[in-house]
Amino acid sequence: MRTLTDLPTPPSDTTERHNADATAAHSFSGSSARHESAVKHVTGRAAYIDDLALPSDALHLAVGLSPKAHGRITAMHLDEVRRAPGVVDVISVADVPGHTDIGPVFPGDPIMADQEVLYAGQVMFCVAATSHRAARQAVTKARIEIDELPVSLDPMAAVDAGDLVRPTHRQQSGDWEAALADAHHVVEGEQFIGGQEHFYLEGQACVAHPTEDEGVMVHTSNQHPSETQKLIAEVLNIPFHAVTVEVRRMGGGFGGKETQASPWACLAALVARRTGKSCRIRLPRGDDMKVTGKRHPFHNRYRLGIDAAGVISGGDISVTGDCGYSPDLSDAIVDRAMFHADNAYSLGQARVTGHRARTHTASNTAFRGFGGPQGMMVIEAAMEDIARQVGEDPLTVRKRNFYRQGRDTTHYGQTVDQIALLHTLVERLEADSDYWARRRAIADFNARSPVIRKGLALTPVKFGISFTAQHLNQAGALLHVYTDGSVLINHGGIEMGQGLHTKICQVVARELGLELSSVRISASRTDKVPNTSPTAASSGADLNGQAARDAADKLKQRLFDFAAEHYQLDRHEMRLERGELIAGIAGSEQRIAWGTLIQDAYLGRVSLSEKGFYATPLIHYDRHSGQGRPFYYFAFGAAVAEVSVDTLSGEYQVDRVDILHDVGDSLNPAIDVGQVEGGFIQGMGWLTSEELKWNDSGQLTSTGPATYKIPAYGDLPATFKVQLMEGHPNSMASIYRSKAVGEPPFMLGMSVWCALRDALASLTDYRHAVRLDTPATPERVMQAARKARHIAASTALRTAQASPGAPSGDTSP
Amino acid sequence: MISFYLNGRMQHVDAEPHLSVLDLLRERLNQTGTKEGCASGDCGACTVAIGEVDADGRLHYHSANACIMPAHQLAGRHLVTVEGISHGDELHPCQAAMVEHHGSQCGFCTPGIVMSLFTLHEHQVQQPAPLTPQRLEAALGGNLCRCTGYRPIRDAALAMHDTPGFRPAWLDDLSLADALATDVGGPGATPNERNVASRGAETANASGFYQPRSLADLVALRQRFPEARLVAGGTDLWLEVTQQLKDLPQVIDVTRVAELLTVESAADDLGRSGVWIGAAVTYSRLEPLFAEHYPAFAHLLHRLGSGQVRNRGTLGGNVANASPIGDTPPVLLALDARLRLTGPGGSRTLAASEFFLGYRDTALGDDEVLEAIFLPHLANDQQLKVWKLSKRREDDISAVLGAFSWRVVGGRLADVRLAFGGMAAIPARATGAEAALEGKPADSASLGAVSEALAQDFTPMSDVRGSSEYRQDAAAALLERLLLVIASSAQGAAQNATSPGASSADARDHSDTLATEVMLHAYAH
Known about the structure:
The complex is a heterodimer of chains A (about 800) and B (about 525). Chain A is of the alpha+beta class. Chain A is about 30% helix and about 25% strand. Chain A is globular and about 95 Å long. Chain B has 19 helices and 19 strands. Chain B has helices spanning about 20-30, 95-100, 110-125, 135-140, 150-160, 175-185, 190-205, 215-225, 235-240, 285-295, 295-300, 305-310, 315-320, 330-335, 350-355, 430-435, 445-455, 470-500, 505-515; strands at about 1-5, 10-15, 45-55, 60-65, 80, 210, 230, 250-255, 265, 275-280, 340-345, 345-350, 355-360, 360, 370-375, 380-390, 400-410, 410-420, 430. In chain B, the strands form 5 sheets. Chain B has a 5-stranded mixed β-sheet with strand order 2-1-5-3-4. Chains A and B meet through helix 1, helix 3, helix 17 and helix 19 of A and helix 1, helix 2, helix 3, helix 4 and helix 5 of B.
């Protein structure tokens, strides 16, 4: 999706500004340190689960999956499986000593199918063999008999039938019915927002070693080791302290390993305990895509009252998440869709309803944005619709609807802080991207070009930061200083590529006044920092950074106390900088080298180990009233996308993207730019080329990269300018006034979808918005273009009939 | 026994015929730097570099997907992996540039990206040329990254040639090429040594993987082992190994059969001039030839699979595989290509249109092999357009592919051939639509009649790549585009006719310029 002609050379690219060798060019307090594993990544020395060496007698597991989406299991003939070469053990649900339900928050997820199957791809049994291939080949020998039952694949029908995985929830502000009744005009619409496969490059994987005392040591690619520890213990019926779960790094997670990494760990632990042998399981790509849940597809509806200028006075929005067969995290995901149905705009007097539909598909789960993106799509669709209705540019309509003084409270009662930042950011991007000149150029181009049409859109993002489950907003850290002065920090977060470990090392180095190289992070382990929250909700650096800082600060204070006494220094004004303890003020400073300080503190019997803790303040949400302050703060951003669409074939390309994104005072600009760029491209993929397909029997047919197309190198926009917003530290007391960056940029991808709709609207002379469900594949774009032409033609016909003198085909008023 | 070099060191390993290079590395040699992302050649995480001794006696490296490359094809090759190109913390320039430009996040795709960059880097060292967007896309289009969005990887690719770094000594060690050619029976071996190697292949029969060097040997092996599977690039067959978990007891590798590796200009049995392409010639080798003679076909190659696939995959494989959504068969139909099939009784030649009989069913006899494909030269006034529709522009399989050839004679359309993939169980021509166009005025052919005829020609199916309705509409849209191109070309020709001395080449250039107005730049040619 880019032209072959005008790729700019990167040295002039604005993203260069944030590279490590150009730290002077920005005003952020964090440095652009490289990823702590960068050298290991590029040399192949970074170890992932499937790379770990195992004992020679280790076993390899494979799972047998249900071919049917719904039915009663009448027989599982596994004798041939047991007799297959290399097979050591075959287990089904009857072999589980403890809990068989491993639902993470609510029950409903059997570890293996129990009498019934609820989706095609559900795990029915598990084989342990002497090699990965032998285990997989053995699986194919199973004969399964299933009495098929009716398959429910339509979430809207499920809602109508009351078939929900969790109860419907509502948020309401004011009298929405009156707002609609009194409105100058009402815009309404429906949309289908497709799901998304995580497509982490490293599939689900786990190694479990049996340990003494009936326990297990588990290495897993996993965003939530504490939950996995709990579930393993419950499945094995052993205490939590007998289970240790370790995660060094993940080859990508994106939410797909928050709850969905646990089943494999439970199975591996189970077989490891049964056989006394180390076990490895890694899902082949096809199995991974069939078994695990995805981003929820959503069906959204909206009726919004507007005034003559297109400003929303109120309305009614309903979002329906297709949750799959079980609750998983769907309650919170649909909540977050509801929390973001406003995006950056005041809904006025509005009601927002969220349904959680049950269908016979894999249990849909967390994915970067956690429902927020699907919620935002409602209001971004409405903005385009309103713009066509009132005959204004969509950007004008968006700006008119922004939260502002007097319209600064969300439909769930939280006041939007930093409204000025939203306005400033959008105005700056509008100017930097030359929005209005390009708008005119595009209008001229489209007037002359019958087949190729260009589209332009600027879309904002306002994303709430905090887990909406309040108790998860806590974190711990464990800091050790060794007698050579080297520092080891552990914390509750997981490294999945987002640079969390790098940022945490930077925090500790900053607190202790050390070179970054003096601080190292080992793997995250449940026996070092216990009872951790998942690394999710963009919260990794916010929560764990504060916990690490707390630990470092406590240790620092202890060292200051020791130094004041031991070296007879003034405790006041004492500080750690550049590898030294410094006391006194300029001119009369006294300095103790870090290594000396640590040696002396050790000999002085001062503890050189400390733990830290953090809990986010201020946040609360009352589900009963649907009101509260669920978010500590909001992160903002905006993107301008320009596309060219072949309105005959439905093909399109993204010609240019400009992004300005708010990360507060960046902890690491290079890493943050990486998150913004990567998030944008992933969001663009969600809305364009990534299409999940099921057949009528409920079997997923897009089961690998041959049929499921995530963005490739050539989808990088020809011109891609990404900048971080400078000079706007977080208004809340986050870690060094930075902001979370994992999820918010994902939703910048909406600009591409809106630009496609803009191009399609040109076919109606910008008088009609054409529905465009997602992903907007060439197939959907072609259909929408045909519809737009049809609307334009019938409008022209009506115009011609109304005024017989007008030349046919002329749609001008 | 497979004898090859791994990162500059000789290796001898035993392997069953279906073992992949990736499993050899990860499970037998404990080299886990190379990753498995999909085991289907679609993500590039397992990318390695394969060094082959070329006609010039030097080692040339190309990228390949280790997951779908038969381990036995390593014989006489130099396999380079991510572990082999650095020394401690001294990094190869491509690795150093990736670190410097923050090109890795989760790191799982990174070894594959590094190896794609390594081959690009070494091509630049051997033969410097501008790093155009097309070259970068060809080098990196087969490597999926889910984290970075590719911008820092592009920066690393552009910067690596100015980035200092470590070069393994074997990269400049000319004796390695000699050793490969002689020690392990590579293509540079003397005839006598080749015989030895050939006998070696025979003695290796115990493994079930056969690597004949001559067409006669190939045909004989095919007769002797009727159950054996033929493999060239492995880009399709090896999916049966990795996805369907089939063990292949007997495999015959056609990639070392001399007669199948030739490209020669010659006439076909109908006396037309053109080029005979050996069935085992890779797409990558065909790129310069196509760029010169069939630009539309060359453009399609850029979108066929990825660099890793084009480096291994062959035109013959795409034809013999006979998938209804293969990219090249419709082009062969539009060009009226011919195929030479060879068996124990000798060779026969037939039109490409006679080859595809039914879904994955061809005219190839059980004891025959596809030897070569003949592409006739384009006539001076002949036009060829190839348009592929897919969800993603790069490395995707088409939902619909149209390949169209026509001439304009006296202002009227002639020799119209409209071939489609994705519209039927076989790649097929739209004979009704062709008839609706044949003889019609080039500047005012009626879309309505053609569309109606097309609707009668095919009843496409719905699948993961597109619905039946979409395929029907999309095929019609391609014909609508075609008529726009033809009409504007006809108008251009009319204008050119008024200026004396205008050549048909000018007319063709003009039509290309106009075509971009009805097509996106990224798809136009």
